[in-house]
Amino acid sequence: MPMSTAGQVIRCKAWEAGKPLVIEEVEVAPPQANEVRLKILFTSLCHTDVYFWEAKGQTPMFPRIFGHEAGGIVESVGEGVTDLKPGDHVLPVFTGECKECRHCRSEESNMCDLLRINTDRGVMLSDGKSRFSINGKPIYHFVGLCCGISTGLGATLNVAKPKKGSSVAIFGLGAVGLAAAEGARIAGASRIIGVDLNSKRFTEDGGVDRSVECTGSVNAMISAFECVHDGWGVAVLVGVPNRDDAFKTHPMNVLNEKTLKGTFFGNYKPRSDLPSVVEKYMKKELELEKFITHEVPFSEINKAFEYMLNGDGLRCVIRMD
């Protein structure tokens, strides 16, 4: 996209959710104050896209442009933007870091008060309006993020924090779960155990030291908590549950000193911490190529959904040609 488009409405192609997948041409307004407009080069699908597209658990909001695992370059910037310039390579992220709120100032949280995820908003924070439209009709935004690797990796490294030589169970072996396993490997775990919904509880040695749940199934969440060792076991919940799910376990599991934790985006602060994740990849400490199982052009977006829905792969890269 030529840089001469700065300040102008541009026309892009996207698919409308909630109906058979089609490619539509939409108008994208210029960035307003403190906003940037990106040219997406590559994107991928996550179960979160499918979850909201099917409108199974959260508030339905259509028409909406989905997709949230992407990489691209800055096309233009709005007034007041100083940290980015056209041509910069960037990752859109579904949460923010204003660096001023109580969460951003805390070393223990990454849940920015100002820029926290809101899947029901669907519009820009500044004026409550969408920047996407078709023939003057607004099209809702999605969550705008890159999450899979960071969420799983951080859930292990930043929240579960397994000690070297410990055992770690991973519930759910999609991209997020395997990223959690990568975190366990980097931490020096002696055993990394992959678990599916039909696996029996661990009984041979009293439980695992750490577990990370990456499925969104409430039954898997309960199993992940109950399978950790009494006295020091820590279970971390990552998956997004259905709206009406409830977590139930016997209070003795807590009294026996098992710890249950949650995590949001792997407890990474986007601006402060994501460069270190990229650095791990650049140094070959973090293996990412193995997560890519398919690649299709944007014109074949339906194939990417088929791969995801059929469980045929981990991540299908979509080239935005």
UniProtKB/TrEMBL annotation:
Cellular component GO terms, alphabetical: cytosol
Cofactor names: Zn(2+)
Coiled coil: none
The keyword Transmembrane is assigned to this record: no
Occurrences of domain Alcohol dehydrogenase-like C-terminal (ranges): 200-279
EC number: 1.1.1.1
Molecular functions (GO terms): S-(hydroxymethyl)glutathione dehydrogenase [NAD(P)+] activity; zinc ion binding
Subunit and partners: Homodimer.
Family: Belongs to the zinc-containing alcohol dehydrogenase family.
Name by which UniProt lists this protein: Alcohol dehydrogenase 1
Lineage of origin: Eukaryota, Viridiplantae, Streptophyta, Embryophyta, Tracheophyta
